[in-house]
Every structure is written in structure tokens, then in C-alpha cells.
Amino acid sequence: MAADPTSDSAAESPPPDPATVTRRLDGRIRVVWILRSVLIAALLAGLTVAIGRFVETPRWLPALVGGLTLALAVPYAIVRYRRWSYAIREDALYLDRGVITRVRTVVPLVRIQHVDSRRGPVERATGLASCVVYTAGSRGADVRIPGLTPEDADDVRETLKRLAIRADGEDAV
């Protein structure tokens, strides 16, 4: 007997384990990155104007510097967003990111010291938050997951905290 083509076999399979799902950042993080690029473009254009007061430069140079900065920064922010992902597994936190240089960071759960969720002024204005994971090791040994909703940042923080406590108990001497 042939299988019924209208049956939904996906409904019969269990849902994916949330601990194995690779997650993406909220799309509003692109706005944050582009706004930072606009600020950098304005600062570079202003610096070009200031230099022009001491050195003979074409009047159009500040516009060119600012325009080129934006022309490169906007596509960069879009590609950066597409390349950013993270996954929380039973053994570690995995981060994949990078435009020119691809970086994969693996943070073993037993190395996690503490986890913060943060909301700076720009993040609050865009309704976003970030999660900062501090690890045992050298100074500055921390990783940041930007572009999360405040609820997701809290969920990531609590999940990592719970898994780190469990992992530390398993590896305790």
C-alpha cells in the first residue's frame, strides 16, 4: 500500500532539541551596527575637515571619506549579521562569526565563571540586549553574544548558568 502523500510525517517526528539548535541574532542588531558606522563615518569626515584646515585638501574630500566609510560599512553589517550564530550544547557554548576572518569560539561550560545580560543605551533604544560570558583564564577571557531580545538574553544567561553548574558538578574533584 502506498504512503498517503497528504500525511504530515514531520508531525510524527519529535521537535528538535533546543539545546542542539543553532541560533541567529535578532535582525535589529544590523541597525545598531549601521548606526555605529554612521558615527564613525561622521567622525572620519570631521577629522578630514580638521586636517583640511592645516593642509590643502579638496573640499569634497570629507564627503568622499564619509561616503566611502558608509558604502563599505553597510554591506559589512549585513554580511556580519548573516555570519553570526551561536549554539548552546550540553558541553559548550559555540559562537560562529566573522566576515573577512571566520572565527569559531568554543567555550566549555566548565570554564564559565559567570554570565551577565546587558543593555546599553543603544541596545535599549533598539529593544535589544547582549549576553556576556566570563570564563576562567587570562584577563579579558570573555565572550559576548550581541543582538538578543532582552528575554532571549535572560534565557541564555539562565541556561548557561544551569548547564555550567551541572558541568562543574560532574567535573569537580
Descriptive overview:
The protein is 46% helix and 23% strand. A hairpin with a 3-residue loop joins β2 and β3 (92-97). With 173 residues, the chain is an alpha+beta fold. α2 runs antiparallel to α3 (61-83). The chain has helices at residues 9-12, 29-52, 61-83, 121-126, 150-171; strands spanning 23-24, 85-88, 92-97, 103-108, 112-118, 129-135, 142-148. The chain has two domains: 24-83; 85-173, Pleckstrin-homology domain (PH domain)/Phosphotyrosine-binding domain (PTB) (PH-domain like), CATH 2.30.29.30.
List keywords for this structure.
alpha+beta; disordered N terminus; transmembrane; single chain; transmembrane helix; 23% strand; PH-domain like; YdbS-like PH domain-containing protein; 173 residues; 3-stranded antiparallel beta sheet
